[in-house]
TrEMBL record, chain A:
<dbReference type="InterPro" id="IPR027417">
    <property type="entry name" value="P-loop_NTPase"/>
</dbReference>
<keyword id="KW-0813">Transport</keyword>
<keyword id="KW-0067">ATP-binding</keyword>
<dbReference type="InterPro" id="IPR050763">
    <property type="entry name" value="ABC_transporter_ATP-binding"/>
</dbReference>
<protein>
    <submittedName>
        <fullName>ABC superfamily ATP binding cassette transporter ABC protein</fullName>
    </submittedName>
</protein>
<dbReference type="GO" id="GO:0016887">
    <property type="term" value="F:ATP hydrolysis activity"/>
</dbReference>
<dbReference type="InterPro" id="IPR017871">
    <property type="entry name" value="ABC_transporter-like_CS"/>
</dbReference>
<dbReference type="GO" id="GO:0005524">
    <property type="term" value="F:ATP binding"/>
</dbReference>
<dbReference type="Pfam" id="PF00005">
    <property type="entry name" value="ABC_tran"/>
</dbReference>
<keyword id="KW-0547">Nucleotide-binding</keyword>
<feature type="domain" description="ABC transporter">
    <location>
        <begin position="7"/>
        <end position="232"/>
    </location>
</feature>
<comment type="similarity">
    <text>Belongs to the ABC transporter superfamily.</text>
</comment>
<dbReference type="InterPro" id="IPR003439">
    <property type="entry name" value="ABC_transporter-like_ATP-bd"/>
</dbReference>
<dbReference type="InterPro" id="IPR003593">
    <property type="entry name" value="AAA+_ATPase"/>
</dbReference>
Length: 306, 543
């Protein structure tokens, strides 16, 4: 298993003076996998990525890419890595096209027909100077260069924060292509729908600690489905049922209700409901949004799933 | 009518709030500049009587100041009867004028384009009830405040210094003229800030404009001082401080400044935020040339490097073109001629000219360091601006990146120095009857290379270890220049003079280069470079 680890951090720490930006970051990215890295602003996502890229030095723990030390062997690692930062800043005097070619050259790559396809797909006018580009267009420049680079690991830090929904879809498709080609992708985001659609595994970071890692399904067992239901007979039994939370009746006869239910209690609750004769039923699986809100509204020391 | 007027005035809404914010941001910078500029000015004035107090001392310096070399540097000395204050005015006027212009440029670029680039202007204009013209008005006022403070400090300081020959009228004319020349060039800088869209280009336009006015001033002073009226920078000489005390230049500068401000406002109204009046044209879609950090640096720096080299060659040539008048012995009375003889005269003339070449070398050297250091500074400014985050994640080592900037900066500074000296030689020998041999210029060049190297190395060390404190190198450079330039004027002790690396080669090119200081300076430079590389490899990148 260790053999196909592309990226691994263990107990990673980073302090800036007295401020501990990273306290305990544990990540694992396997070959051919898309790992989502989510957390609110200031949780330490970019700091983690900057440590992994060898831009800043960890103050504790270890971080390895391709089995090599991210700080000492950064030059070697960078030969097989493409990176798109969250805020892309480009030399104002270069055109977008010149920038793309430069970035490709620096990675030892060439401008290929695929590069031209990508420029067309993203609809970027490459004759314009970087200083005239909007944030989204600067991001496109970096994305085009990254996607036309043929390497093993792609790192995206909030890659679509400046893109419109149409380009977001293009980005998601391109990531899917990378995955099909057996590449590994590390993607940070606070846009949860994006992570949900693309990632195999998700790591959640909060205040410098990775508090949860797993597949989306694996995390869902920890969470509650939202149920909206109408029945013929009153659902009085719900009030005392195990695993039912935030129950509100939306009419006076207790025949319409909204509540959330623990995933492992859903069978019992369903049989209770069918006793009252279901007229209408809607259950919604938790989105990452819900997961997210639940984790981050929790107290500092409350563990996930409590 | 009133409605129109009201809507016009709303364009300036919140100007004073912005002014307050600007001053809050810049007060340390302004304070340091004022302490150095006004403080040193007054300090030199207070000490001046001790140096040029007696009639004999005055007569000696007057002779020097009347030579063409000094006229080209300081402006003409026309007055017949001299006193301490007049000497002071003629030595300080042009130099302090230059410093005032630099001070105002740095403030005005920061308050206009610098602020716009950082996104602050957009936030302020877009999200708050602030008039469209408030930022530019606040910038104009900020400069007014800074220069008024300078005028007040120097005015009262000069009154306290009370040099022989100074009077109330002259003291205040001096203070106000210097303050106004700074402010006016600052206002002209506001125009350039509207024309081009980034602070880097604004600075280029600024200094190009200033360079032209300075050269016009220099050439006309040597040729015919009447034409010096052509250059706004030359007006400061026309004030005739402590002699005629002419307030006309003050009025002219004020009018020019106001007109410039008016033009800047008119241009500002007609442009979009973050854009310049001069449009950027479409560029190439592909690049074969750009392959890595080195070619990228060359690409980004090519225009400004060329500008430096050509500009310095022009400066060198213009100094060279006055070599024939500089070589003339001021005191060429028949008695002296007889005593020295024809060959003696030629020798004395040559020595005088060679020591002028030595002075030019120091000036060119300082400017060459500025040119090279600005390139190396980019390594850090590009890091903070985030441009380098894409380079630093490519398979190139940090040492390679640092080497690229270091070698480029060092080479540029050496080339600038060489170009200036060669241009001075070319133009000088064209006007001289007995041309100066190449080896004198070569010797000056060789002596200054280690000096350049040590300043550049100091900057490399700072960028590696303490990038936030990289401006220390300007203090070192300015300090060294001040020490070797004004050190002897204000009678600094020898140990203080020795701090300046320039001191060790003060006799070049008349004498041979002393090898010992060369070795020491190069050892210090090597240590600084090693420190820089170690620091740069170890430190966190800030963006």
């Amino acid at each position: 298993m260790k053999g196909d680890l592309v990226l691994e951090t263990n107990g990673l720490q980073k302090s800036f003076g007295k401020f501990k930006a990273l306290k305990d970051v544990n990540l694992q990215l396997h070959k051919g996998e898309v790992l989502g890295f989510i957390g609110p602003n200031g949780a330490g996502k970019s700091t983690t990525i900057r440590v992994i890229l060898g831009l800043i030095k960890a103050t504790g723990g270890s971080a390895e890419v391709f089995g090599q030390n991210v700080w000492k062997d950064s030059v070697k690692i960078h030969q097989d890595l493409a990176y798109v930062p969250g805020d892309v800043y480009l030399w104002p005097n270069l055109t977008g096209g010149q920038t793309i070619d430069l970035l490709l050259h620096m990675s030892g790559q060439a401008h290929t027909p695929r590069t031209d396809d990508l420029i067309k797909t993203f609809k970027l006018d490459t004759s314009k100077k970087n200083r005239t580009y909007s944030k989204g267009n600067r991001q496109k420049v970096a994305l085009i260069a990254a996607f036309s680079t043929d390497v093993d690991l792609y790192i995206f830090d909030e890659p679509t924060s400046g893109l419109d929904p149409l380009n977001e879809v293009i980005f998601q498709n391109l990531v899917a292509e990378l995955k099909k080609a057996g590449k590994s992708v590390f993607l940070s985001s606070h846009i949860l729908s994006e992570v949900e659609k693309m990632c195999d595994t998700i790591s959640i970071i909060r205040e410098g600690k990775v508090i949860e890692t797993g597949s989306l399904e694996a995390m869902q067992h920890l969470t509650r489905n939202t149920v909206v239901v109408k029945t013929q007979n009153p659902m009085t039994a719900l009030k005392s049922a195990a695993g039912v939370h935030q129950l509100t009746f939306t009419d006076g006869h207790e025949t319409a209700a909204e509540f959330s239910v623990d995933s492992d209690q859903i069978g019992n609750v369903m049989s209770l409901l069918s006793d009252s004769r279901i007229v209408q039923l809607k259950t919604t699986p938790p989105t990452l949004e819900d997961l997210f809100l639940r984790y981050y509204s929790a107290n500092n020391d409350q563990k996930v799933g409590e | 009518m009133t409605k129109k007027w009201v809507s016009k005035m709303t364009q300036y809404t919140q100007t004073f709030a912005l002014l307050k914010a600007n001053l809050k941001r810049d007060w340390i910078k302004i304070l340091i500049w004022l302490a150095v500029l006004a403080g040193m000015f007054v300090a030199v004035a207070a000490k001046f009587e001790g140096i040029y107090g007696s009639p004999k001392q005055i007569a000696t310096i007057a002779q020097t100041l009347r030579s063409q070399a000094m006229v080209s540097l300081f402006g003409p000395m026309t007055h017949a009867s001299l006193n301490t204050a007049i000497i002071f005015a003629s030595e300080m006027m042009v130099f302090w004028g230059i410093f005032m212009v630099i001070f105002n440029y740095s403030l005005s670029v920061g308050a206009t384009r610098g602020q716009e680039e950082s996104g602050l202007t957009e936030m302020v204009l877009g999200g708050h009830p602030v008039g469209r013209l408030a930022p530019i008005a606040a910038a104009g006022l900020e400069l007014l405040v800074a220069n008024s403070l300078f005028a007040l400090i120097t005015g009262f300081g000069m009154m306290a210094a009370n040099m022989p020959g100074s009077d109330f009228n002259g003291n205040w004319l001096f203070a106000v003229t210097l303050a106004l020349v700074g402010w006016t060039f600052g206002m002209i800088s506001l125009i350039f800030a509207q024309l081009v869209a980034d602070s880097h280009n604004v600075a280029i336009y600024n200094y190009a404009f200033f360079g032209i006015t300075y050269l016009v001033r220099m050439m006309t002073d040597v040729a015919n001082p009447d034409y010096t009226w052509l250059s706004p920078f030359g007006w400061i000489e026309k004030a005739g401080i402590y002699t005629e005390n002419n307030w006309l230049p003050v009025g002219l500068l004020a009018i020019l400044g106001l007109i410039a401000f008016g033009m800047a406002v008119a241009l500002n109204v007609n442009r979009d935020i973050d854009a310049g009046i001069i449009q950027v044209r479409a560029g190439k879609r592909r690049s074969r040339f750009l392959r890595g950090p080195a070619t990228l640096l060359l690409w980004n720096q090519k225009s400004i490097s060329l500008f430096w080299i050509i500009g310095m060659a022009v400066l060198g040539a213009s100094y060279g073109s006055v070599f024939n008048s500089i070589s003339k012995i001021v005191n060429d009375s028949p008695v002296v001629r007889q005593v020295l003889g024809a060959s003696g005269i030629a020798h004395a003339e040559k020595t005088q000219l060679l020591s002028f070449v030595g002075i030019l070398g120091v000036i060119f050297g300082v400017l060459a360091v500025v040119g090279g250091a600005m390139v190396i500074n980019h390594l850090y400014t590009e890091e903070i601006k985030g441009y380098l985050q894409l380079v630093n994640t490519k398979p190139q080592s940090r040492s390679y990146l640092l080497s690229t900037y270091f070698v480029y900066g060092w080479l540029l500074s050496v080339i600038i120095l060489f170009a200036a000296l060669m241009a001075a030689m070319g133009a000088g020998n064209a006007v001289l009857k007995h041309p100066l041999a190449f080896h004198y210029f070569w010797r000056t060049f060789v002596a200054l290379v280690p000096v350049l190297t040590v300043f550049i190395s100091a900057l490399v060390a700072l960028i590696g270890f303490l990038p936030r404190w990289r401006s220390i190198v300007w203090v070192l450079l300015g300090g060294s220049f001040m020490i070797s330039y004004f050190g002897r004027l204000v009678d600094l002790p020898t140990w203080a003079l020795k701090i300046s690396p320039f001191y060790w080669f003060r006799k070049v090119p008349i004498n041979e280069i002393d090898g010992t200081p060369v070795i020491w300076i190069l050892i210090i430079a090597a240590v600084l470079i090693v420190i820089g590389y170690i620091g740069y490899r170890r430190r966190d990148f800030s963006n």
